[in-house]
Amino acid sequence: MATSEFKSWNSFDNFSRSVRFKTRFIHDRQVRDFLNAVKVSAERRVFELEEGKALWRAQVGYELKLRNEADYSYEEPVPYSVERMKPLPNSAQEGRVNPRGIACLYAASNKETAVAEARPWMGALVSVAQIGSTRKLRLVSCGEGHDSKLDFYFEEPDPKIREEVVWRAIGREFSKPVGPDIGAAEYAPTQVISEHFKMLGYDGVVYKSKLGSGVNFAFFDLNALEIYDVGLFPVKAVTIEVGDIENSYVVKRRKLKS
């Protein structure tokens, strides 16, 4: 019989290892129990996006449009077309929420976050669309724990704390930046959870961005949002902030001048 509670504070890590390294499409009892607990607890984490709410979507790149002046012609960079600003239904690239080939529309709560999530380089031209929802949408909020440290318990806490710990782990996983060279099925855990939400009838997922100040949205139905306008923006700067050292080693001790 499936359980409606998480069996352990470490349930997400166990689930993650299973879908990344053991079986991804046929789930064992442990994974089924985890997803059932996610189903029950997700009902307490519904985020409703009102109809017409303005969001932003960005893609690095542009199109060239031929311009004709008096005695010469030239090509001018213009934003991507409306069709290009939405993912192609049957040829989508792999993402945090969607597997390759299954389209999902990603957006952000503000323009800067949408551009940052597109991973542009300094000087790049980015096509940015303002979009809006065509109806009220019900999404699962996976924004808990995005900036929290790892939890650890020597003994199992009570079910309420286990639920909070697991959802913090889910939030960290959704917000975790992943490099362009994705290895070891890094997206598998969030993809499996997201498809579970999709099958349950939710419209998408909302989670905190690690690259911008806003939040990210992922929508399962491409037609749930419409594009209002598209602009072409230059990236003037890309900022990198280095955190505190976490580990190091000394190869050779030597006094160097800075």
3D architecture notes:
By secondary structure, the chain is an alpha+beta fold. It has one domain (11-234). It is built from 5 helices and 10 strands. The strands form 3 sheets. Strands 1-7-8-9-5 form a 5-stranded mixed β-sheet. Strands 2-6-10 form a 3-stranded antiparallel β-sheet. Strand 8 and strand 9 form a beta hairpin. The longest helix is centred in the middle third of the chain and has 17 residues, at 159-175. It is globular and about 80 Å long.
Concise summary:
With 258 residues, this protein is of the alpha+beta class. It is built from 5 helices and 10 strands; from the N terminus they run ααβββββαββααβββ.
Q: What is the total domain count?
A: 1
Q: For the report, how would you describe the main beta sheet?
A: 5 strands, mixed
* Distance between the ends: 65 Å
The count of strands amounts to 10
**Which stretches are poorly predicted, pLDDT < 50 over at least 5 residues?**
none
Quaternary state of this entry equals: single chain
User: Helical stretch count?
Assistant: 5
